Amino acid sequence: MEQFKEKPMYTYLMVLVICASAGLQGWMALFTNFAKEVVGVNGFQIGVAQAVREIPGFLTFLVMYVLLVMKEHRLSAWSVVLLGIGIGATGFFPTFPGLLMVTVIMSIGFHYFETTNKSLTVQYFDLKDAPVVFARLRGYGALANITVGSIVWFLSYFIPYQLNFLLLGIFISLAGIYMLSKNPVQEHGLPPQNKLVLRRKYWLYYVLNFLSGARRQIFIVFAVFLLVEKYRLSVSTIAGIYVLNYILTYLTNRYISRAINVYGERVVLSLESASLFVLFLGYAFIENAWVAVILYVLDSIFFNFAIGLNTYLQKTADPGDLAQSTAIGFTINHISAVVIPLVGGSLWLLNWKLPFLIGACLTVISLYFTQKIRTQTR
Q1: Among the four residues 188, 245, 259, 303, which has the most C-beta atoms within 10 Å?
Q2: Domain span at residue 67?
Q3: Alpha carbon distance 349, 110 (integer Å)
Q4: Where does the chain cross the membrane (predicted)?
Q5: Handedness of CA 182, 123, 310, 214 (dihedral sign)
Q6: Does any domain span residue 216?
Q7: Is there a contact between 344 and 358 (Cβ–Cβ < 8 Å)?
Q8: Which residues are within 8 A (CB) of 278 and not within 5 positions of it... i.e. 6 or more apart?
């Protein structure tokens, strides 16, 4: 009967997820238009900016060393504070080098929070509850994104980018500072682990994370840039699309968690790969603005199927390996996340369809490896 709600860690993570999700969503809703209209970037530069944004994700293995001097739940809260600082500063640096600098600050906060968030979830919630908790937290994040997306959409008509970024950043940082006063830690039976774990038996989890990171970047970077550059959608329209995305995320996440519990990770992740293959081909060959918007909305729904990777690890890894393996998986996910924007940005200058065709190929490879998933209770 959802007894996991009684755990202090659930409430703690819920608040931080809401803050981090709202911060990233507000930043994303403003970033592409800000980069295009104020900074004046081209397709290659947007790829560089997004690659730089993912470098902190590639370095998330360093979390294990930070945890030598800081509790994991406190690192989560401090990460949200840093996320807010990076967001709030964005509008004050309307040059390409400045944009890269504040993007790195924001990204360190977000990626370190995401690593600790996933790690704490798989440590504090059992095999049956974890998919539900992941889905619920994403649902709460979606509600926060709906709210902040609506606010950004409204304020974009009245205030400049600089003030939009600043107000959002201040709110996120203050919320993170408040959560530093909370202590949700309970004994969960696992000794603290502060060493890296890279084991052969988790090879499939690593491969799937690598492919997931590559596909995710095509969605995050080039799908939205397609809407802004090719189809000339305004910042208010982009914000409205994000709001619609997160309404659907909130409504569908509960069914995703149920599907994982009933059908397993292999079925859910196979459906994700097959669907994204069709969507990427649609981006490349159907040149209609509103069809592209529909594809983007569907893309955002299937994006949430990736929680199956976290529950797959939880079902197959040794309990003492969970925190470290989560950090390693997040790092591997971001190896491709650093490379794809750079390669895709270069290819965009040749032909804007090429990044999406590469994405379609990656989904086929991912579908092949997904068939090797075998999950069972430890």
Answers
A1: 245
A2: 8-181+200-370
A3: 29
A4: 12-31, 51-68, 75-93, 99-116, 137-159, 165-181, 202-227, 233-251, 263-286, 292-313, 325-348, 354-370
A5: positive
A6: yes
A7: yes
A8: none
Q: Kindly give, in sequence order, each residue whose CB lies less than 8 Å from that of residue 76, ignoring residues fewer than 6 positions away.
A: 12, 13, 16, 112, 113, 116, 117, 120
Q: pLDDT tens across 85-135, in order?
A: 999 999 898 889 999 999 999 999 998 898 888 878 877 887 777 778 877
Spatial distance between the Cα atoms of 256 and 120, rounded to a whole number of angstroms: 21
Q: Does residue 188 belong to any structural domain of this protein?
A: no
**Would residue 306 count as lying in a domain?**
yes
For 279, the token pair is 């969507």
3-state secondary structure labels for all residues of 201-266: HHHHHHHHHHHHHHHHHHHHHHHHHHHHHHCCCCHHHHHHHHHHHHHHHHHHHHHHHHHHHHHCHH
CB atoms within 10 A of CB 158: 8
Please name which of 75, 135, 132, 84 lies closest in space to residue 105, comparing C-alpha atoms: 84
How many domains are contained in the chain?
A: 1
Model confidence, pTM: 0.68
